[in-house]
Design a protein that fits this description.
mainly alpha; two-stranded antiparallel sheet; 32 helices; 3% strand; elongated; disordered N terminus
């Protein structure tokens, strides 16, 4: 899940996915550490700073903004920072100098607030914000503020969390907060746009400002709703580029790391790379500096900086920066990877990677691999991963709390390992990898079962964790043999239900999570997790289905599913139903399908590239709809099924006819599409899909690597299309379809034996081709109540009529009723014989059965059960059958039909409920053959034109 998603690829559908990575909380590096990451201490020496401060233990970055002879001592209480005397001192300094005031007092005050937050190892809480913000109501910035005062103030207040919006903050406080921020941003924009460039603008100030702006966005301030913030970012980016390209006052390693981290954060929070050319230029200017400093023998990056850089590069790539189109980017990655290996293998404490760094590095490597960095051809990449893996196990087993992974780290790590395995890192050949996975799975279970809120997983974590587990199973981790995996899944499932049913906004799954989670549920069931024995799984599915309906019917765009999400959802529904989810017991599933179908049609017809289904997505949708309908899903006419299917078929047809798109049809997709088109039977107009069908059959015939199941499904699909041609034309001539049937039959015959379904297909193909059946199919006998009642009534009406029940003819599946004396078969058809159970549109299985029997020379009478569902209609149909057979009790043994009387009966017999002749369901597809079995004398009749007749 890519995601969240995650990009999910799997056997039947491209997944995707595509997962939005949870934030790693990496901040600008430096000495102050609290849960938002490392806060950089700002060193801003002014011209009047006394030398003694260089050695004064009480001096710090902010002391430079104090008047001479002053220094900041550690503050132990927040109230001491905001005394009336302090606030008066601020106001007096500003008032005394007026427009000439350079902002040094405000910089000092902001720095003291930041020091308090750093000492507390947390940003200001709601109570502290409420005390501070009213005091800042008259906070003013004049054009004469120095660059250092401005950068120090904005950076310090942001670091301390002064601008972080709290949920329960009063509107008046919010206004003061927004006004203060706007005032500072306007001053930044003014300074950055000065021509010529202000002389006091330095690299450290640029770095601190961009970091602060990224932190504001990361803490919840929306770029689109804060135009001044976006404008300030845009104004700063050219300065980043010019300083990066300058030969004087260049960025230090720490500043380079912080800048790229900030840009990645901004991009990850909505700043579009393609819409911000200055951002791409700034990144391009910084990349050579990264490589130069990474290759240098001194000025090395610290572990935190290496982590931030690799995370930033991965984040930028994940948001649209192309690896293949940015060679400098690949060089940077190649230069950083040896540092990752060296730091991971180092015994020196200063080089140690903490829990967050380990998680972020593995996430970054996995992201880069997911975007095209090949494991097999990048030796440094495999070495870096191998060096990091022991740290996962060590941290997990550590008894020191500071070494432990938080829930977000666990989710990121398991997601990363699953991605690496999915991209070629072999589980069986990498012992350290299996150990890391095992320790993480134990942690998942522990955290999921914990009662402490700090241990709880967020919705995105749950989605990513379950997606990762499924991917590991997909790549060789056996569900039935891995106890820890089953325990972790079992521990997470209740959280899916709880979050899905929660009314708290923070607990809600976004559309991508919903799609990924249902895909995960389907994959778990497909991998052997039994629905009946896992009630928590069924409960989780039911809770998620409700959200599918709500989101699909929502008018808000943010609630809508993307094309891949729609494809994954319907694929999941089909897989769940195919593996035992009872439609009758899950009404939410039908509602979800109905809600999604209009979106299927809209996306299939969309002319916007981002709105299109991929080739695989369209194939999955057709397969899913065919599977759901085949399993008994009945939709109302308002469900848009009749509109969605043609729209998808046209979409697939365009893809099949495009030379550029043809490679999107993989083996599994080609076979599934052929099967789905055949299964949908008369719901698809034959002439509209002929070219697509020819393309699919050609691809299959040229593929020598098909599995037995693929050949069986393909052979069945080809026979269904052959049956449709045969029933439409009444011709039994050899054609191209016959040749394909023969070739596939030979291939399937050569790899026998198979299961019941394969043997059934072989028997049908042998009968179709007129060959001896090489297998003995094992058919299960099922007699419906309708069939039994009809047989009894018919026998009662015609006591001398010989009726055989569930008789297998020429090794074909048993027919309902056989009248051997008349070479006639009666097929009592329930809803499963029709697409959508409409008793009108026959599916592929029904069409093939009729054609096979007709090719053997049998007359086929089709009787839909909705025409015999009461005593009166039963009698009417029996009278019609009697008329058809023209059997009179006193004349048993010789059948004579009065052509005039039969014509009248036939005209009645073909009339549907509206009195119109119907071609939708055939009573029989060829003329009745008058033949009595074992009679000494046969009467010759002139052959008539085949007549289409239906019992309505």
């Amino acid at each position: 899940m890519d995601s969240g998603g995650a990009g999910i690829s799997y056997k039947y559908t491209t997944s995707g996915s595509y997962y939005k990575q949870p934030d790693d909380h990496a901040g600008a590096s430096g000495s102050g550490q609290y849960r938002y990451g490392k806060v950089r201490q700002v060193y801003v020496p002014l011209r009047y700073t006394q030398k003694r401060n260089e050695f004064n233990p009480a001096s710090d970055a902010c002391s430079a903004n104090h008047p001479s002879g002053h220094s900041i001592k550690p503050v132990h209480g927040f109230h001491a920072l905001i005394t009336p005397e302090k606030m008066a001192w601020l106001a007096e300094g500003s008032a005394h100098y007026g427009d000439r005031y350079d902002g040094r007092n405000h910089g000092q005050f902001a720095c003291s607030i930041k020091q308090y937050a750093s000492g507390s190892k947390r940003p200001l809480n709601h109570s502290e914000q409420r005390q501070l913000i009213p005091l800042l109501h008259d906070f003013k910035v004049t054009p004469r503020w120095t660059w250092r005062s401005l950068t120090t103030t904005l950076h310090s207040l942001t670091s301390a969390g002064v601008f972080t919006p709290h949920k329960f903050m009063d509107e008046g406080y919010r206004e003061t907060q927004a006004t203060l921020l706007s005032t500072l941003l306007e001053a930044v924009i003014f300074k950055c746009n000065q021509k010529p460039e202000a002389r006091d603008i330095d690299s450290q100030g640029i770095t601190n400002l961009l970091w602060a702006l990224a932190k504001l966005v990361d803490n919840g301030l929306e770029l689109e709703k804060t135009p001044k913030l976006k404008e300030a970012v845009t104004a700063l980016l050219p300065l980043v580029q010019s300083k990066a390209e300058s030969k004087v006052d260049r960025f230090t390693p720490q500043e380079v790391a912080n800048l790229l981290w900030a840009m990645a954060k901004l991009v990850g929070n909505g700043l579009k790379l393609e819409n911000t050319p200055k951002l791409k230029e700034a990144v391009a200017a910084l990349l050579p500096l990264v490589k130069t400093k990474a290759d240098a023998k001194k000025d090395h990056f610290k572990p935190q900086e290496v982590t931030n850089l690799l995370w930033a590069v991965a984040k930028l790539v994940d948001n649209g920066l192309k690896l293949e189109k940015t060679p400098k980017l690949k060089h940077v990655v190649a230069a950083l990877l040896p540092h990752v290996k060296n730091k991971a293998e180092s015994k020196e404490e200063k080089d140690h990677l903490n829990a967050q760094a380990t998680a972020n590095l593995l996430w970054a490597v996995a992201k880069l691999v997911d975007h095209g960095l090949e494991l097999e051809t990048t030796v440094q990449l495999k070495e870096a991963v191998t060096a990091l893996l022991p740290h996962v196990k060590t941290r997990t087993e550590s008894k020191q709390e500071k070494d432990h992974f938080i829930p977000q780290h666990i989710a990121n790590l398991l997601w990363a390992l699953a991605k690496l395995v999915d991209n070629g890192l072999a589980l069986e050949k990498t012992a350290k990898l299996k150990e890391a996975v095992a320790t993480l799975l134990h942690l998942v279970k522990t955290k999921a079962e914990s009662q402490e809120e700090k241990d709880h997983f967020m919705p995105q974590h749950i989605s990513n964790l379950l997606w990762a587990m499924v991917k590991l199973v997909d790549n060789g981790l056996k569900l039935e043999k891995t106890v820890k995996l089953r325990e972790a899944v079992a521990a997470l499932l209740p959280h899916v239900k709880t979050k899905a049913e929660s009314k708290a906004g923070k607990d809600h799954f976004v559309p991508q999570h919903i799609a990924n989670l249902l895909w995960v549920m389907a994959k778990l069931v497909e991998s052997g997790l039994e629905l009946e024995n896992t009630p928590k799984l069924k409960e989780a599915v039911a809770a998620l289905l409700f959200h599918v309906k709500i989101n699909a019917e929502s008018k808000e765009e943010k609630d809508h599913f993307k094309p891949q999400g729609i494809s994954n959802l319907l694929w999941s529904f089909a897989k769940l139903v195919d593996n035992g989810l009872e439609l009758g017991e899950t009404p939410q599933l039908k509602e979800a399908v109905v809600a999604l179908l209009p979106h299927v049609k809209t996306k299939a017809e969309s002319k916007e590239e981002k709105g299109h289904f991929t080739t695989q997505g369209a194939i999955n949708l057709l397969w899913a709809l065919a599977t759901l309908l085949d399993n008994g899903l009945v939709l109302d006419k308002t469900a848009k099924l009749e509109e969605a299917v043609p729209a998808l078929l046209y979409h697939v047809k365009i893809k099949a006819e495009s030379k550029e798109e043809r490679d999107g049809f993989n083996t599994q997709g080609t076979v599934n599409l052929l099967w789905a088109m055949a299964k949908l039977g008369e719901a698809i107009e034959l002439n509209l899909v002929q070219s697509t069908f020819d393309f699919l059959v050609d691809r299959i015939s040229k593929n020598p690597q098909l599995s037995q199941q693929d050949i069986s499904m393909s052979l069945w699909g080809v026979m269904v299309f052959s049956a449709r041609v045969y029933l439409d034309s009444g011709s039994n001539d050899k054609n191209l379809l016959e040749r394909h049937t023969g070739e596939l039959f030979s291939r399937l015959e050569n790899i026998c034996p198979g299961g019941t379904e394969v043997k059934t297909v072989i028997a049908m193909a042998a009968s179709w081709l007129g060959r001896a059946c090489p297998v003995v199919p094992d058919y299960q006998i099922f007699i419906s109540e309708f069939q039994s009642t009809f047989r009894d009534q018919l026998q009662s009406s015609l006591p001398f009529l010989k009726i055989e029940e569930e008789k297998s003819l020429n090794s074909l599946p048993p027919v309902d009723l056989l009248l051997p004396d008349y070479n006639t078969v009666i097929d009592v058809q329930g809803p499963s014989h029709y697409v959508n159970g409409d008793f009108k549109t026959r599916n592929g299985s029904t069409l093939l059965k009729i054609a096979l029997l007709q090719k053997l020379g049998f007359e086929v009478i089709e009787i839909p059960v909705n025409k015999i569902d009461d005593q009166d209609s039963m009698k009417t149909v029996i009278e019609q059958v009697k008329a058809k057979l023209a059997v009179l009790p006193e004349a048993h043994g010789s059948v004579s039909l009065n052509s005039g009387e039969w014509a009248a009966d036939e005209a009645y017999f073909t009339a549907d409920d509206g009195g119109q002749c119907s071609d939708d369901c055939y009573f029989t597809a060829e003329e009745y053959l008058e033949e009595q079995i074992k009679k000494p004398k046969k009467r010759k009749r002139k052959r008539k034109r085949p007549v289409k007749t239906s019992v309505r």
